[in-house]
Structure formats: structure tokens, C-alpha cells
Amino acid sequence: MSRQAAQLAELLLEQVRSAGVVKLEELSREPRGALQADSSIQVTWVPAERLPPACSIAATYDSSTSPASIAVAEDASFGRRRFSLLHEYGHHLCNQVFAVLEELFAHPRAAELEEKVCDAFASRVLVPEAARELAFSDGVTARAVVDLMEACSASAQAVAVAAAESMSEPGYVVLLNPAGAAEFAARSGGVFPARRGAPQAGLLKRAAAGAVVRGVAHLDLGGGSTTRELNIESAVAQTCVVAVMVDGPAPWMQFSAGRTAYSAPNDGWCDNCTAAFTTYQAACDSCGDLKCPTCGACGCGCKAIAGERRCTGCFIVQPPRAYESATASRCRDCD
């Protein structure tokens, strides 16, 4: 989770406190009941098939209605419904806080940043700071994540986001289903998002089957993209398997077994969008230059494919053939 997203999420929390319409304690305990006090929003339960299938959030927000509306999947788990409802309420609050709107308007990837902000807001409501500090006092391990899931009433997604925000290195906290797919992947640092339902292989597939693993593995992001090798540890929870993946020394490592070198952030300059940047991503295989995290450009022409663009659903840069039409903003996998 980026520092900017965390700071903006705090502004949303302050908006809830200062407005006094909804009590934060009640919002944490029972979001749907608490939101009945806010006349600017209406919450409805809908069949899951009415929501985007590849989305990790089991709800949608519509600001075009009066009042604005949030539709939540009625057959999602209790914890996932709560997290999803708070995530969408975060979108509603973003429209009410001018400082947040300013930051989003100025950001080159506003939609992606807003999703991170809403994840962080939902997680902060459900998992207070004191609980995070106690759970991860010795670092973020898979066992610590599972223990926090069992100790609080927050959803697995909320705890995963809290864990990712507490990580000192870039990486992921992944929730795996029994089929070996990533149901949800909370991010730490400037790593790329993973699409919900992306099938995994190797150690992650073994972990999803219930094996407790430690080692080095790639995370499949979906759409043919994978991460570099990351240190991984897994633990089994009641509703899922948790895998913590770290690009750097991990809390469970007493000594450096496996990888001996870890990535440090690199500073670069993008000639395409004329901006300085810091990135953990690998350099381009063709030209050796760092890829700009904003536009994806590097020192060669491999980026200049007519029609190539970032999908607003999975946030992966896709070729033209991945879209239904030249004007489509979401790829076929997300629609």
C-alpha cells in the first residue's frame, strides 16, 4: 500500500469523524446498519451475477443515482460483504473531501490510486492501528496474518490490506482459494496489481492445497504477467490460505537462504512523460532502461504499440487485441 493512499485514507476517516453523521465505532461493528444514518447513500443487496466477475470487491458504487447507491453481492461471505461495503463507501467519501479529489485529479493513474485509498479506508475501519501494531510487532508473517484474522471480526481482505500496509518491503499478502487461484492480493510498495482469479503454480499451488511452504516463487498477475522471484511463506486460515510474498529480506528468515540479493528502489527519469520516478520494477529486457511506473515507457520503442493501454479493471497494460473495441477502457477478461 502506497504512503499516499494511506494518507488519503486518513482524510476519509477524518471526514467521517468531523461530519458526525455516521459513528466510526458503529461503522466498524456493523457497516450496513451504521450507513442507515447517512441519507446521501442507499445500500442494496443484489445477486452476485450483477457484479463484475473479475473484481475482488463484492460491491459496486453508483454516484449517478439520488441518493448515491451501493450494491453488495448477497451471497458473498459476511466478512467480504463488510469490507466491500466499506470500500464502496470510501468511493462515496472521496467525492466529499476536496483534498482527496485534488490528489486524484493530479495523479496520472487516478483510478488505481482511488482503489488503493478505498481499500486502505475499509481496512482502517475494520482493523484499528493498535491491533495492527500488536499483531505485526515481529514483522508480517503468514502466521501473524492468520492469527489476526482469527482474533478480530474483520474480513480476510481487510486483514490482508492491514498486513500489506505494515510490511517494510515491497510485496504482497495473497489470499488463495482451494483451486490454486489468487482471490485477493493486497500490495505493499510499487508492485503491480494481481487480477482476481489468476491461477498460480509451483509453491503457491502447493500452498493453496494446504501445504505450509517457505521458499522462493513468482506470483502470476494474470494476463501472462508474473512478478520476479519473491520470498514466500504460507499459512492456512479457516476460509483461505494466506501467502506473504516479500521482495527483500523476510521476517521469517534467520539467514539468507535461496536469494542472496534483493532489489532496492531505483531512481529514473522518463523522457515520455518528463517526470522523475522511483521504482522496484525490473529494467526493460530490450534496452536495459528502467520502465516508468506512470506510462510504462523505457528507452526503446517496445511500448509504442498502437492502441496499447492500461485496462481500468485489472490495471494491466494490454495490447489492442485484448479489448472489444478501439474505445473500450476494460479488457475482455474484465468485462
TrEMBL record:
InterPro entries in alphabetical order: IrrE_HExxH
Domain IrrE N-terminal-like: 67-161
Pfam families: Peptidase_M78
Entry superkingdom: Bacteria
Protein name: ImmA/IrrE family metallo-endopeptidase
Species this protein is from: Kribbella sindirgiensis
Highest classification ranks of the organism: Bacteria, Bacillati, Actinomycetota, Actinomycetes, Propionibacteriales
